[in-house]
Each structure stands twice: as C-alpha cells, then as structure tokens.
Design a protein that fits this description.
Blueprint: E1 3-7, H1 11-22, E2 26-31, H2 37-45, E3 49-52, H3 57-60, E4 65-68, H4 77-84, E5 89-90, H5 92-96, E6 103-108, H6 113-126, E7 131-135, H7 141-147, E8 152-156, H8 159-163, E9 172-175, H9 190-198, E10 209-213, H10 217-225, E11 231-236, E12 244-248, E13 251-256, E14 259-264, H11 273-288, H12 293-302, E15 311-316, E16 319-323, H13 330-338, E17 344-348, H14 361-367, E18 368-374, H15 379-385, E19 391-395, H16 398-408, E20 414-417, H17 430-442
Parallel strand pairs: 1-2, 1-4, 2-3, 4-5, 6-8, 6-9, 7-8, 9-10, 10-11, 11-12, 16-20, 17-18, 17-20, 18-19
Antiparallel strand pairs: 12-13, 13-14, 15-16
Length: 444
C-alpha cells in the first residue's frame, strides 16, 4: 500500500486525504499549526490518522508521495528534508487530477482570478453544464472528485499550486494578468514568479487552449520568448484580433472557432476596465464550451461579483463604504483606486510582500484625501504617501480603522478598504479582514 502524507490540515489537505483514502492509500495528515475542529471531525469520521502542532519526522519521511498545502513554503525544514530524500512533493491539483476524466479549466493570474473563476463557473452552470468550482476557491478539488461526479471543473490556481504540478494539464487555461506578487516566495526574482504562472500551460497540447491578456507586458514577453503547444486566445482593451476577444465601439467582441459573439459593454454587470477583461476571459471559455449566446448575455448582465472584491457594504450619512479586502497586492489596489469616482479615505496596510507603491502615486494624488494605516508595520506606506495626503493615521484593529475613517470622511466621500498587503499580521486571512470591516461598518 502506498503511503500518502498530507502536509496541512485545511481544506485542500483534508480533501486530498479523503480522496487518497478512497483510492487505497495509507494516509497520514500532519499540520505544524492547529487543525480546525470541523476538519478534525472529518478526519476522525473517515479514520484518517493525523497530528497537529508538529511534523513527526519518522511519520512524514516514510512517505511515497507528499501533498503539500499551498501555504507551506518550499524552504520550510520538513519540505527541504523530503526533497533531500527524493520524495515527490506535489500539490492537491496534481494529486487529484488523474482520478477524474472531467475537463478542467485552470485559471491563474496575479489579480482577477477569483472574479474570472466565479464568472466562468456562473456562465457554464447557467448554460446547463454539470460543473464544479474548486482550487483556491470553494470546496477542495480532491474532495469533490472523491464525492461528486462533475463533467468539468473550473479551478482557481495560485502560483503555489502550480509550483507543485508535474503532469497536470488543463483543457483550457487562463492567465488573467501578471504583476509582482508573492515575491517573498520567489527569492524576490520576478522572472521566477512569471515562470511559476506559466507552468499552467507547460503540459498543454495543440488540442488545448490558453486564454491570456494580450495587453500584459509580462505575458506577451514570455510568449514571445517561450513556446506553448496550446492554441492561443488573447483578449485586449487596446488591440483587435482575428481570433480572440476585444472591445470595439463600446462593444465586447469575441471571435472563436469562426463564430462571433458581441455584447454592449454597458450591459455587463461588473464595473471597471479590469472587469471587462475578466468578462472577456470567462466568455471565451463559454464560447469554447458551446454555451448559447443568449445564456452568456443574460449571465453577464446578472453576475453579482465576488465577496471582498470592490463590494459595496453600506452608505452611511452619504459616505459609501467599500470592502476590497481581497486586494492583497499593489496591482489589485491600483484597480480599486482607479475605479473610485469620489474623494476617498483609503484603509491600507498589512504584511508587505516586497511592495513597490510608486505605481499608486498618481492615483493617490488624484483621489485619496486621507489614509488609515492598518498593520503592524506601516513604515513603507507612511514613507511613500506621508507627504501626499492631507491626513494619515495609524491604527491596530479594524474597529478603530473604520471609526477613524468615518471621522475623516465628509458627505459624498467613500471609505475604501483595499490593503495592497497580506492580512496575516492582524487577521486569519483576507476573508476575516473583510468580514471584520463589514461588521465594523454596521456598528457605526
């Protein structure tokens, strides 16, 4: 019996353990932190052995294969020891994919991947397909393969998940865009991060498709200098393609498989230029999967967007509060500030991943009147914008951040939580941060 060791007892870890057990592996789950109570229950019910707050080497280093949760870095001591012993360390996606015949649509990118994944899922589901949603979002891919029978899966894939693939090949891949993010995990080498994203297409064949942002410099440079076997489908706000997606006279046009799809951009529910790109990417998938045009139009006009992504929370005394907690890097915050149309109080900060705030400078000058710094170490934000905005305040919890912002805001302003940083200094994750923001706004 082959031994599968799962590092990390969260959603992807427990899902992998359940699939592994079902496929006849001897399974052991090891988490260096604490395992949440409901995941422990699942492991116990399924008679899967586990440990927490430690990695017992003799129980881990005897594995035939190891599934590492995406949050665990390659440089952690236990992963280094596994590598020295030549034990394969793979991601959930790599482990699970061979156990399903379903088509997969893999979506990666620095920003927009959750919105694009959710919108693609919405389009395919409304189109009548038997489709699952997984990867970095929703229920674990492995868990769904163990328990559900979907014909296709829409998967949000982070660079960390792609680092752990060997043979995985999506039928359709999307790269929404690439900008510097998570550089702390890539030795502060941007090219290594770009290469990680492009692993999504490394096993694709000429029967597969790669949908990508044709305006994105990092993507177009990579494609110019490297080869993929996949058929290329670009999307753009600036260029027009014979095969691909583009905007012409306020109309989204998609030309794929000799067939044209058009829709006026004014009828697309999601706001902002970056969301037009997400819509083009998702619609390209829907066209490849033969979803009817009327269904695509209807679905694009009623899609509500993603929680914690430019989510309008409440308007209090004519001040609009917006939750963009999902903006964990500078590029995401750039989109958020770019979409603001009124003077803005910006709540920012958290764990800096090697951020360069320079690209935000023109937007901050134009739109931001005050900044509330919400992080343990706010030095970089203060150094970058201290001389640019009228008022800057440091706080160390969300209640205080929202209260302070509400005092700074005047009628007609907006308060925007768009941190540009990871959340792990004061919060469990970006969802926790977003929920605390919404709670604090409701308490005003």
């Amino acid at each position: 019996m082959q031994r599968l060791v799962v590092l990390g007892g969260g959603e992807s870890g427990v899902g992998t353990a359940i699939l592994g057990k079902k496929q006849g592996y001897d399974v052991f789950v090891s988490d260096f932190g604490k395992i949440k109570a409901h995941y422990k229950e699942v492991l116990i019910i399924n008679k899967i052995e586990w440990e927490e707050e430690t990695h017992t080497e003799e129980l881990v280093l005897n594995a035939d294969v190891v599934m590492k949760s995406p949050g665990i870095p390659d440089k952690s001591p236990i992963v280094k020891k596994l590598s020295e012993k030549g034990i394969p360390v793979i991601s959930e996606i790599e482990f699970a994919a061979p156990f399903t015949k379903a088509k997969t649509i893999g979506i990666t990118g620095s920003n927009g991947k959750t919105t694009t994944t959710s919108l693609t899922y919405h389009l395919l589901k409304r189109g009548g397909l038997n489709v699952g949603l997984g990867g970095n979002i929703g229920k674990s891919f492995a868990w769904q393969i163990a328990e559900d029978k979907f014909d296709c899966y829409v998967l949000e894939l982070s660079s960390f998940q792609l680092d752990g693939i060997v043979n995985y090949r999506p039928d359709i891949a999307i790269i929404t865009n690439i900008s510097p993010d998570h550089l702390d995990r890539y030795e502060y080498d941007y090219n290594k991060y770009i290469a990680a994203k492009f692993r999504i297409t490394m096993n694709q064949t000429e029967n597969d498709y790669l949908i990508y942002d044709g305006d994105d410099e990092a993507i177009t440079n990579w494609l110019h200098n490297n080869k993929t076997n996949a058929q290329l489908i670009p999307f753009s706000l600036e260029k027009i393609f014979e095969k691909g997606a583009f905007i012409k006279n306020d109309t989204m046009e998609i030309n794929i498989n000799e067939e044209e799809f058009t829709m006026e951009t004014a009828n697309i529910a999601l706001e902002g230029k970056h969301n037009l790109k997400n819509a083009m990417a998702a619609t390209s998938v829907a066209k490849l999967m033969n979803i009817r045009k009327a269904v695509i139009r209807e679905s694009l006009s009623n899609f509500q967007g993603v929680e914690h992504r430019l989510e309008k929370v409440l308007k209090i005394q004519n001040v609009q509060y917006i939750n963009d907690s999902k903006a964990t890097n500078v590029n995401a915050t750039f989109f958020a500030l770019d979409s603001m149309t009124v003077p803005t109080i910006w709540i920012a900060g958290g764990v800096d991943k090697g951020n360069d705030y320079a690209e935000l400078m023109p937007l901050v000058r134009e739109k931001v009147k005050g900044i509330v710094c919400l992080g343990v170490d706010n030095k970089k934000i203060i150094d970058a914008f201290g001389g640019v905005v009228d008022i800057m305040v440091e706080v160390n919890n969300m209640q205080e951040a929202v209260k302070t912002a509400s005092h700074m805001a005047e009628k007609g302003d907006a308060v925007l939580l768009s941190p540009a940083c990871a959340s792990f200094d004061l919060f469990e994750n970006y969802e926790d941060r977003g929920r605390q923001f919404k709670q604090a706004v409701q308490n005003l």
